[in-house]
Specification:
The protein is built from four helices and seven strands. The longest helix is centred in the middle third of the chain and has 27 residues. The chain starts with 5 loop residues before the first helix and ends with a helix.
Length: 169
């Protein structure tokens, strides 16, 4: 267990709780959903309503149609679910006086609390697609994607606050 310096403790006690919205970019999800619906419609139209002379087995034709309808149904379901979400992001990251409080708002997500005193390393890693902030702590690790923050400045502010509050700066 790492002990924080008196200066770090003094900073923690004077800084307020800071909240960050964290979750996937829904603009992309909406675009992909609409694209899936259009592709499914084109497949169904092409298989059932055009007479191009191609003989396609009836089982294959209905199999492809069923698959296209399932994809379109899933896309419509996701678009309707997005419409019912109050907040633009599903998860919330809260920097409290004592640690990082990660609260996913999904059934499959697992809430976590990482105390600043338990953080051994915190570093930003550049990957091919994105930037990640990796936090190693006594109970495991927490990896956060830059693209899931509202913008780069929130990501940079979050990383700077975590490093400073954990005494790693």
């Amino acid at each position: 267990l790492k002990l924080l310096s008196q200066a770090a403790i003094a900073v923690l006690m004077t800084e307020p709780e800071v909240r960050f919205d964290y979750g996937p970019n829904y603009d992309q999800t909406v675009f992909l959903g609409l694209f899936a619906i259009v592709v499914a419609a084109v497949f169904i139209w092409g298989l059932h309503f055009t007479d191009d002379g191609a003989e396609i087995n009836t089982v294959v034709r209905w199999g492809i149609t069923t698959f296209a309808l399932v994809v379109a149904g899933a896309a419509v379901g996701n678009l309707l679910r997005l419409n019912s979400i109050d907040d633009d992001r599903l998860d919330v990251l809260i920097l409290t006086a004592y640690g990082i409080d990660y609260r996913p708002r999904t059934k499959s997500g697992r809430a976590a609390f990482v105390a600043y005193a338990n953080i051994s390393t915190a570093k930003t890693i550049n990957t091919e697609e994105d930037e990640e902030f990796r936090i190693k702590h006594s109970a495991g690790k927490l990896t956060l994607q830059r693209s899931w923050f509202d913008d780069r400045s929130n990501f940079e502010r979050f990383t700077e606050l975590v490093v400073r509050r954990s005494g790693l700066a």
